[in-house]
Design brief:
Distance between the termini: 80 Å
Largest sheet: 3 strands, antiparallel
Strand content: 5-15%
Number of strands: 9
Structural class: alpha+beta
Helix content: 40-55%
Radius of gyration: 22 Å
Length: 225
């Protein structure tokens, strides 16, 4: 009995050291040596400061708050302060890194929703998202209708934190961004296509536009103009 206990204790100690210490250190060292950027979270910096990740979607808006509570409109939808000079991500579970002036805030927080497609609350959220999208984009794109709104502008991705929006969504928003930044629509559309990635492996999914990368490119373009 004593011998069995000693053998079990040795096995626990050895496996803990090998699997819990040596193996993670070796894998971390290999990852840092071969692809340090990806190993550290594919972080994106601006002027030496981390502003987000190429893997995580970020909101460029913030809810209107009063005494710690979100302000609702007559339809029961949250009111938002939107940085109109920036492209907006799809509905996301991440915190807002930009405030209403476009200043970078903390982009590390994230959450997710357990709401199902048949939930009454889901339907209410979709209606609010449609209303907010039309209110934001239609003044700059008068021909925009509900039928023309891309689905990714209304609901979140499966993970809730994907950084891409559809090309169709980006091209609609381009009207607003071009107007607010006083750039030509052609210039903004060119940037949209520049920061569009193709399908995974050439056939999986749809092309997507990375919102953070695109917005940083817009800031660089505007600063030169």
């Amino acid at each position: 009995m004593r011998r069995d206990l000693l053998t079990a204790a040795r096995a626990i100690i050895v496996t803990t050291i090998v699997c819990g210490l040596i193996y993670p250190l070796v894998m971390t060292g290999i990852a840092q040596g071969i692809f340090p950027g990806k190993a550290n979270g594919s972080l994106i910096k601006r002027n030496g400061v981390v502003v987000g990740s190429a893997l995580i979607g970020q909101a460029f808006e913030a809810p209107v708050m009063k005494k710690g509570t979100a302000v609702l409109d007559k339809a029961g939808c949250s009111e938002w302060i939107v940085a109109k000079r920036y492209f907006q991500t799809r509905p996301s579970g991440t915190g807002a890194p930009y405030n209403d002036t476009g200043t970078l805030d903390n982009a590390e927080s994230s959450t997710f929703s357990n709401l199902g497609p048949n939930s009454v609350l889901t339907v209410a959220i979709y209606k609010c998202n449609i209303s907010a999208y039309l209110a934001l984009e239609k003044p700059y794109d008068p021909g925009l209708t509900v039928a023309k709104i891309p689905v990714d502008a209304i609901n979140s991705s499966a993970s809730g934190i994907d950084p891409q929006i559809s090309v169709a969504n980006a091209l609609i928003q381009a009207h607003r961004v071009a107007s607010v930044r006083q750039l030509s629509l052609g210039t903004v559309d060119a940037l949209v296509h520049k920061y569009t990635t193709g399908r995974s492996l050439g056939f999986l999914g749809e092309p997507g536009v990375d919102v953070l990368e695109l917005n940083l490119a817009l800031d660089r373009t505007t600063s030169r103009s």
